[in-house]
Amino acid sequence: MTVRIRMKKLGRKHRPFFRICAVDIRRPRDGKVIEELGTYDPLVGDVDARAVLDTERIDYWLGVGAQPSDKVRVLIKKYGSQGTRRAEAEAARARLGERKPVPPAPEPVVPFVPRAKGKKAAAAAPSPPAVESSVAPESDVAQAPAAEEKAASEPAE
Fold first, then answer.
1. Given this structure, which CATH class describes domain 3-97?
2. Residues 77, 51: contact at Cβ < 8 Å?
3. Domain coordinates of the chain in residue numbers?
4. How far apart (Å, rounded) are the C-alpha atoms in residues 63 and 57?
5. Is 105 helix (H, G, I), strand (E, B) or coil?
6. How far apart, in Å, are the Cα atoms of 112 and each of 102, 126, 127, 130?
7. Which phi and psi (to 5°) does residue 49 adopt?
8. pLDDT band at 55, cuts 50/70/90?
9. What's the rounded mean pLDDT across residues 11-17?
10. ∠ CA 83-77-70, rounded to 5°
11. pTM for the full model?
12. Average pLDDT of 85-107?
């Protein structure tokens, strides 16, 4: 039996996903596999986190004579046990596992209530939410006339 290590396509339309598998050469691409050796997701944002390989099992299959396909050979060269980018791949997968910070919730928006025209429409329309007025408190208003009276009672020079 001749064994190849190749990618088995899964996923859906416009969302590919691959499993890296050891298969009998006589089987179809997406057919029965001998063993699954890893995954490859081409849509992951970080390039180094796309491939996840079981390096011990890949080394075993390569040791017993399995031939990798061209694309799998590139992945093994980069991310295998003696891969050139193995450390970067582990760091990228660790970054993907971290929790992302969540921004605080925005302030709620008060809905706009249009003014109704006419007496009947005004009575039927709900009143708009109360808004704080910028009018001075009554104590300040009461003090203002007293100050004017005091200024008027003083003799002019």
1. alpha beta
2. no
3. 3-97
4. 10
5. coil
6. 29, 11, 11, 13
7. -95, 5
8. very high
9. 94
10. 165
11. 0.62
12. 89
Q: Which tokens sit at 29? A: 């691409």
Tokens of 149: 């009276």
pLDDT tens column, 114-146:
877 766 655 665 665 565 555 555 555 555 555
Q: Which residues contact 47 (CB under 8 A, 6 or more apart)?
A: 92
**What distance in Å separates the CA atoms of residue 123 and residue 113, rounded to the nearest whole number?**
14
Cβ neighbours of residue 123 closer than 8 Å, sequence gap 6 or more: none
Residues in the chain: 157
Q: Report the distance separating Cα 18 and Cα 37, nearest Å.
A: 11
Q: Encode 70-106 in three state secondary structure.
A: HHHHHHHHHHCCCCCCHHHHHHHHHHHHCCCCCCCCC
According to DSSP, the residues that pair with 52 across neighbouring strands are: 39
The residue among 10, 12, 18 whose CA lies nearest residue 40 is: 18
Do residues 34 and 3 lie in contact, with contact meaning Cβ atoms separated by under 8 Å? yes
Show Cβ contacts of residue 118 under 8 Å, excluding neighbours closer than 6 positions: none
